[in-house]
Amino acid sequence: MTLTLVVGGARSGKSRHAESLIRGHPGPWTYVATAEARDAEMRERIARHRQQRGEGWVTVEAPVALPATVREAPAAPMLVDCLTLWLSNLMLGGRDVAGAAEDLEAALSWRAGPTVVVTNEVGQGIVPETTLGRAFRDEQGRLNQQIAARAATVILMVAGLPMTVKDVK
């Protein structure tokens, strides 16, 4: 199993870079989407991303059941986009975040095929004003650290430029 974590801020080029990493492996490729199309803007964004990805991708929707989806997926190259929306879905649904994070880490550790996971860096900005915002920032930081510890490669995206911060051969 090869696990790569691609982390960065909003519009930093995370998804584009993650897709290019997966395309470096023979297809078909599995795209695990955690977004939920709750409004028109998000529906447009999802449609645009699907169109940009092009042929060769099998899309699986997993807004909450990400660990099970990872466990049950074939060994084909897999892109998970993204942990940030998955965590948001868990928290807004009142689910057990710590337990789900442990389940995801275990599922990723058992994957046979190459896997690239996208996540946001949310701790470098201002302190969130709300209790929920601060809790989210803290949980996202813990989740990112947990998956980064498991990953062989961690790439930080800054202004569309990939910076490798961990590379265990």
TrEMBL record:
This is Bifunctional adenosylcobalamin biosynthesis protein. It holds the Pfam family CobU. GO terms for molecular function: adenosylcobinamide kinase activity; ATP binding; cobinamide phosphate guanylyltransferase activity; GTP binding. Its EC number is 2.7.1.156, 2.7.7.62. CDD domains: CobU (cd00544). The gene is cobU. Belongs to the CobU/CobP family. The keyword Cytoplasm does not apply. The lineage of its organism: Bacteria, Pseudomonadati, Pseudomonadota, Alphaproteobacteria, Hyphomicrobiales. InterPro entries: CobU/CobP, P-loop_NTPase.
